[in-house]
Amino acid sequence: MMYFDLRLNMRRPINIQTRQRGFTFIELLIGLVIMGILFMVGFANYRGFASRQNIEAVVREMKGDLRLAQQMATSGVKSSDPASSCHAIDKELQGYVVRGTSATSYAVYANCDGENLVKEVNLSEKYPNITLSDFEFTFLPLAGGITWSGPDRIDIDEVVGGASIESRQIIVTAAGQIN
């Protein structure tokens, strides 16, 4: 009987590693396409988020200035600027006016026989795409209420390429609530 030693064949070097290590060109392309799609979705969402944050920052700033004018009028405080005509003792405070001076700026005035600038805000420096509607509110002194010329609201829009992409409103009620 003849026996064969199978171990002799095992000693011969056999190339077992026939699998490739690494990725094929197609696999790399698919990975890059997926990463590109994720980047584009993330970038679009970030632009929307940044736009909303800009509008909200302008709304907070404007509400703060409206409330400042309202508080100063309600308490009967005149402008503390010695150069202003309101600083004189014989001048009577007729109210504080908050007015849109252009599509990108507004100002707060103390009204004592003429308007005296208290604060001016130019939004185009910090928020170049923000526009405001025309508005004018007068807060009367000593809880005298509020008057306005035009609408009872301020429309704030972010405009890019001629189209409004975000919009908010500030509404001032006859009772003086600022929403």
What would you note in describing this structure?
This protein has 179 residues and is α+β, with helices and mostly antiparallel strands. 33% of the residues lie in helices and 28% in strands. The protein contains 3 helices and 8 strands. The chain has helices at residues 7-10, 25-75, 123-126, and strands spanning 95-102, 105-111, 115-122, 130-132, 136-139, 146-148, 153-160, 163-171. The strands form 2 sheets. The chain has a 5-stranded antiparallel beta sheet. A 3-stranded antiparallel beta sheet has the order 4-7-8, covered by helices on one side. Strand 7 and strand 8 form a beta hairpin. It is elongated. The model has no long low-confidence stretch (mean pLDDT 86).
Shape: elongated
Reading the helices and strands in chain order gives HHEEEHEEEEE
Sheet with the most strands, sense and barrel status: 5 strands, antiparallel
Radius of gyration: 34 Å
Share in β-strands: 25-35%
Number of strands: 8
Major β-sheet strand ordering = 3-2-1-5-6
Classify the helix fraction into a percent range: 25-40%
The helix-and-strand class reads alpha+beta
Low-confidence stretches: none
In whole angstroms, the N-to-C terminal distance is 105 Å
* Helix count, DSSP H or I runs of 4 or more residues: 3
User: What is the overall pLDDT average?
Assistant: 86
